Structure formats: C-alpha cells, structure tokens
Amino acid sequence: MVRSKHEKREQLACENRQTDTTAEVIFLNDLISYIKNGMQSCFFNCIESPLNYVLSSVMFISLINK
Predict the structure, then answer these.
(1) Distance from C-alpha of 30 to C-alpha of 34, rounded to nearest angstrom
(2) Confidence at residue 36, expressed as pLDDT on a 0 to 100 scale
(3) Whole-Å CA distances, 51 to 56, 59, 63
(4) Residue 18's pLDDT is what?
(5) 23-38 confidence digits (pLDDT tens)
(6) DSSP string, 13-51
(7) From residue 1, how far is each of 5, 7, 8 by CA, in Å?
(8) Hey, how many other C-beta atoms are within 10 angstroms of the C-beta on 20?
C-alpha cells in the first residue's frame, strides 16, 4: 500500500503526540511519587516523631508515679 506524503505526516504527528502524552504521564507519575514521599517524610518528622516522644514521655512518667 502506497501512502501519500500527507498520510505519512499525519501518522508521524500522531506518533509524536502519543510520545508526548507518554512523557507527560511519566512526568506526572514521578511528580506524584515525589510529593507522596515528601508528605510521608514530613508527616514522620513533623507529627509522628514528636508524637512518639510525647507518648514515651507520658508512659515514662506514669511508670514513675506507680
């Protein structure tokens, strides 16, 4: 089957759009992973770690008071 130049251009343009879309999806997935990892580390550093400190302090004080 012989394709015209116009058909070849359309096919190339379509393939380029698919490649661009794939790159955007990969970028978005990487960005989402980066944000999730940042939120998890922030949660641990800002909330979970001090919370563990407070809970261990409360348990220690309650043991002393017994």
Answers:
(1) 6
(2) 79
(3) 8, 12, 18
(4) 63
(5) 677 777 888 888 777 7
(6) HHHHHHHHHHHHHHHHHHHHHHHHHHHHHHHIIIIIHHH
(7) 13, 12, 12
(8) 10
Place of tokens 């790159």: 23
pLDDT digits (tens, 9 = 90+) for 34-52: 877 777 776 666 767 777 7
Cα 31 to Cα 4, 21, 25, 35, distances in angstroms: 41, 15, 10, 6
CB neighbour list of residue 11: distance below 8 Å, 6 or more residues apart: 3
Task: Using alpha carbons, list the distances in angstroms from residue 15 to 20, 22, 28, 53.
Answer: 9, 11, 20, 55
**Geometric angle at alpha carbon 62, from 57 and 65, rounded to 5°:** 125
Q: Residue 24 is encoded by which pair of tokens?
A: 């955007």
